Amino acid sequence: MPALRGVGDVAIGNVYGSNVANLALVGGLSALIRPVPINKRVLRREIPVMLLVALLLWPALQDLQLSRSEGAALLAVFAVLVLLTVYMARREAEPVNSSRAASNRGHGTGPAKKSVLLVVIGLVGLALGADMSVQGAVFIGEQIGLSNAVIGLTIIAVGTSLPELVTCVVAAVKGQHDISIGNLVGSNVFNTLLVVGAAGAIRPFGLSQRLVGLDYWIMIMVSAGFVLMAIGGRRISRVDGALLLCGYLGYMVYLLAYTAGM
């Protein structure tokens, strides 16, 4: 297991760092561009689930390793959440879909096919761009002596959050707030359950003590702070966005200072 500790540090560090970057960096920038209102459904369901899911990692990781059974359990929780989300979304959309179907009879499917194609092309472009950014940044990080954990928490985390950053900034500019908040919350749930679960199910790994200590609780504090901001004002204001960005800058300073002191 110790031989796999470096692999686990990068994987879990990436998840922690990406979750923090999504909420503090991406969420903060989006709110500075335009305050992000949050509807009641997201406040009542998705945002609390995001925090609860992050807390689920503690019992799985507190022994400094992730087993296949624990990875499989996280994947099972993810599958249940996806099924529940799809079921509730379809049930809530049924009246709207019925009226739209009646009004759209006789219209072609061309626009829908074009939209699907554009989404696929955009996702591929985002993935390739983020991958190239990560590869270059990891090389630089290794050259300046960053540890696997810090590379995962900083460079790879920011690289993997680039698609969320682009999507949320564009959505904020266009005023499509549900896309912004859904993108952030969904990405964090995806990271915590699917990414960690799949990594553990494929290959169990060990972790450094720091990733089950302060780094984990920083992720929880950022998630809880985001939840409190959302519940308190039913939106992420520009002031909230500035606080989130300042918090993220402070987090980066802490990580670099920690590395320098090693």
Plain-language structure description:
The structure is a single chain. This protein is mainly alpha-helical. The chain has a single domain (2-90, 119-260), classed as A middle domain of Talin 1, CATH 1.20.1420.30. Helices cover 82% and strands 3% of the residues. The protein has helices spanning 5-33, 40-61, 68-103, 110-143, 148-160, 162-174, 177-202, 214-233, 238-260; strands at 36-37, 65-66, 205-206, 235-236. Strands 1-4 form a two-stranded antiparallel ribbon. The longest helix is centred in the N-terminal third of the chain and has 36 residues, at 68-103. The radius of gyration is 19 Å and the shape is globular. The chain starts with a helix and ends with a helix. The relative contact order is 0.24.
Briefly, what is this?
The protein is mainly alpha-helical. It has helices at 5-33, 40-61, 68-103, 110-143, 148-160, 162-174, 177-202, 214-233, 238-260, and strands at residues 36-37, 65-66, 205-206, 235-236.
Q: How many E strands?
A: 4
* CA(first)-CA(last) distance: 23 Å
CATH architecture: Up-down Bundle
Q: What's the overall geometry?
A: globular
Write out the strand line-up for the largest beta sheet, numbering strands in chain order.
1-4
Strand and helix order: HEHEHHHHHEHEH
Give the low-confidence spans. Answer: 1-5
Here the CATH topology equals: A middle domain of Talin 1
Any key phrases for this structure?
262 residues; mainly alpha; two-stranded antiparallel sheet; globular; disordered N terminus
Write the layout of secondary structure elements.
Blueprint: H1 5-33, E1 36-37, H2 40-61, E2 65-66, H3 68-103, H4 110-143, H5 148-160, H6 162-174, H7 177-202, E3 205-206, H8 214-233, E4 235-236, H9 238-260
Antiparallel strand pairs: 1-4, 2-3
Helix pairs in contact: 1-5, 1-6, 1-7, 1-8, 1-9, 2-7, 2-8, 3-7, 4-5, 6-7, 8-9
